[in-house]
Design brief:
67 residues; three-stranded parallel β-sheet; alpha/beta
């Protein structure tokens, strides 16, 4: 999708794999420019999801709210 040259924007993006480190790259988030991101994750999980880098990418992409 990123290499197609097509512009795709979304209002809501559901983060892949519980917000893991490889689920939502900065490049992808900047391309789709979501207003809101939903992350499905259990509290205090042993995998430490969502990943801190993923959360940083989400914030840097200008997302208004994370759920």
């Amino acid at each position: 999708m990123l290499t197609s040259g097509r512009v795709l924007t979304v209002d809501v993006y559901k983060a892949g794999h519980h917000g893991s480190k490889t689920s939502s790259s900065a490049k992808f988030l900047k391309a789709v420019r979501p207003e809101f991101v939903v992350i499905s994750v259990g509290a205090d999980n042993k995998y430490q999801h969502p990943n801190i880098e993923t959360l940083q990418h989400i914030h840097q992409a200008g997302v208004k709210k994370i759920y």
